[in-house]
Amino acid sequence: xxxxxxxxxxxxxxxxxxxxxxxxxxxxxxxxxxxxxxxxxxxxxxxxxxxxxxxxxxxxxxxxxxxxxxxxxxxxxxxxxxxxxxxxxxxxxxxxxxxxxxxxxxxxxxxxxxxxxxxxxx
Length: 122
Known about the structure:
Layout (H helix, E strand, L loop, with lengths): L4 H11 L3 E3 L1 H8 L5 E4 L3 H6 L5 E3 L5 H8 L7 E4 L4 H12 L5 E4 L2 H7 L8
Parallel strand pairs: 1-5, 2-3, 2-4, 4-5
């Protein structure tokens, strides 16, 4: 999907204030005690396949529901989407809400697939 220039500019501006993690670093990061991998894509994207051990909390509801799902704001959170844009926006907002260990997966699920890593579909 080709994103609009304004959307891309917004995401690039936000990236300077968030932490990103490469797909190659994700397995080690998820080994941290309590670390969570959150898929922020839409429901239909989630149904087509997701990263192993991911939990779904879509971009449209994450800010509304995160405190119920993850009350400890020091929990290491790793967010991904299709290409790293929506997860960057979600990471930014979660930081504004007081979450201190939020990371966006650079390149999202597309980067995961490009490395030939497995997806879960059930």
